[in-house]
Structures are given as structure tokens and as C-alpha cells.
Amino acid sequence: MAETEKTSLSRSAPEAYPKRTRYRSDSDFVLNKRVPPRPAKRPNEFFITNKSDFKGQLARVFKLLENNEEEEIILRGLGTAVLRTVNLSLQLQEKLGPQYATEVFTYTVHLVDDIEGVPDVNEQTRSNSAIKIRIFNKNVQVQDRSSTGEVKNS
């Protein structure tokens, strides 16, 4: 008798809950995001992303500064990686001590996306926040190259 009750309960349960319907997008266009522009990479420059290994980047940058292989390093982050870039620089600052200084620059990058399927519009622009963090030894004089190629002593 208990077995017949179980089967009757299991049959009535699905009727009480309707199936979920999936909604399709009504748009006929496709948005392709282009790769953001990057400046020419230097050996002391690191681009931080959310997909990269945090501990690995921390160890690699720390090793470069600790062994005096590089006098300064530059960390760059774009979009959601800004927070991760700041965290990495704070961890480095804590490990390296007071002899190293940090300079932070924030800016906006204008990105271009391709739109396929719309007859009149081919591109769409959007803005994204970015950060550049320079970590350097206070006791060592570093030559800084500006975008014009001039050498400046800081």
C-alpha cells in the first residue's frame, strides 16, 4: 500500500511546476570586442589580468626587484584587473620594505568594438578604466623615457 502512494505522488509533482522557457535574443547583430591596445612591452613591464596566476606574478616581480635585475617595474591593469593590480603592488610594497616607492597613474582607455549585422554602423566605442603603477628603488637614480624618446633623470 505504501508503494502505490509513492508512485502517485511522483506523478503529480511535475504538473505543479511548469517548464522554464528559454528566451532567445531578438537582436540580429553580433558584437565583437577587439583586443585592447597595449604599449610596446619592456622587460620590466607586466600586464596584469584576472586570468593570470597572482602568486606567480608576485614571485616573478619580487625576484626581479630583490636581485636588482631591474631598477624599476611597471604594473598595468585594465578594467576589472585594476583591483588585482593594486593588490599586487600593495603586496610587493609590504614585502620589499620602505626603500621602494610607488607611483600610481589612472587613466581611461577608449576601446573599439566591431558590430556585424547592422547596415549603417560598423564600430562602437566604449571607455574602460586603466591603471599604471611604477615601483622603484628610492636610492637608485632611474632614467625614464617619455613617449618622445627623451631621457629624463628622475
TrEMBL record:
InterPro entries to which the protein is assigned, alphabetical: Alba-like_dom_sf, Pop7/Rpp20
Pfam families (UniProt xref): Rpp20
Region of interest called Disordered, as start-end residue ranges on this chain: 1-21
Keywords for this protein: Nucleus, tRNA processing
Principal location class: nucleus
Subcellular localization: Nucleus, Nucleolus
Signal peptide: none
Keyword Iron-sulfur assigned: no
Entry annotated with the keyword Cell wall biogenesis/degradation: no
Listed PANTHER family: RIBONUCLEASE P PROTEIN SUBUNIT P20
Protein name as annotated: Processing of 7
Organism of provenance: Nesidiocoris tenuis
Taxonomy of the source species: Eukaryota, Metazoa, Ecdysozoa, Arthropoda, Hexapoda
